[in-house]
């Protein structure tokens, strides 16, 4: 039996396979070296960039630390202000309470001090001359005459405020007896309008500004009652 001839195709295939394996291994080595080189270059570039911007970063860090310190100081200051504000609020509340108590007390004292006072409006300026007490006494007697149930013993009489030719200054009159004051007011209300020597005179109780403001709140109600002809019943 003749000997077999060697298979050339198989030999060529074996050689080709060995050559490709060598190329593939070399490619893998070159690829790894290339990646390592790229990483090295990137690290160097990043390091150089950081070195370039490091002073700015240090400056920013310093500013940030300073801002944090200032923020901490501000928080402490705000906390301290909150405590002081709470103390001041409490103190202010106490002062407002005391002030209201004092105002109410002064108001009561002023009302009491005006208890015997009358306010006369419409008397011409200087008509009382140098003796206002005598003038007011004669004025009350002349206006009310025998209708007065008691002697109008005038203790004090003086002008207040600023007046004009059309609206003379008001006169405050203090009588010695409370009953006399109430009798004069009652007669003045019953007469409505008092004509004295061609002067239209009105007599009112002498009230404090605070009482006057409170009464003014009811002006609309009084106008409606007058329009409806509803009269107040006085006892």
TrEMBL record:
It comes from the Eukaryota. This is Uncharacterized protein. It comes from Chaenocephalus aceratus. The lineage of its organism: Eukaryota, Metazoa, Chordata, Craniata, Vertebrata.
């Amino acid at each position: 039996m003749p000997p077999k001839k060697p298979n050339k195709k198989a030999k060529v295939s074996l050689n080709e396979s060995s050559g490709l394996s060598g190329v593939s291994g070399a490619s893998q080595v070159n690829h790894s070296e290339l990646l390592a080189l790229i990483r090295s270059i990137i690290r160097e570039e990043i390091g150089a960039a950081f070195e370039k911007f490091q002073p700015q970063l240090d400056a920013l860090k310093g500013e940030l630390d300073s801002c944090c310190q200032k923020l901490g100081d501000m928080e402490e200051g705000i906390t301290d202000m909150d405590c002081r504000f709470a103390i001041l609020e409490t103190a202010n509340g106490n002062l407002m309470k005391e002030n209201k108590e004092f105002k109410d007390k002064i108001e009561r004292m002023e009302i009491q001090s005006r208890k015997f006072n009358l306010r006369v409006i419409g008397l011409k300026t200087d008509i009382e001359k140098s003796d206002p007490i005598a003038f007011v006494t004669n004025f009350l007697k002349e206006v009310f005459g025998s209708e007065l149930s008691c002697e109008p013993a005038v203790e004090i009489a003086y002008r207040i405020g600023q007046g004009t030719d059309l609206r003379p200054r008001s006169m405050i009159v203090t009588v010695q007896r409370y009953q006399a004051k109430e009798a004069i007011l009652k007669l003045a209300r019953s007469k409505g309008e008092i004509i004295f020597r061609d002067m239209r005179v009105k007599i009112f109780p002498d009230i404090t500004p605070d009482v006057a403001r409170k009464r003014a709140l009811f002006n609309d109600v009084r106008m409606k009652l007058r329009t409806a002809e509803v009269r107040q019943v006085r006892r």
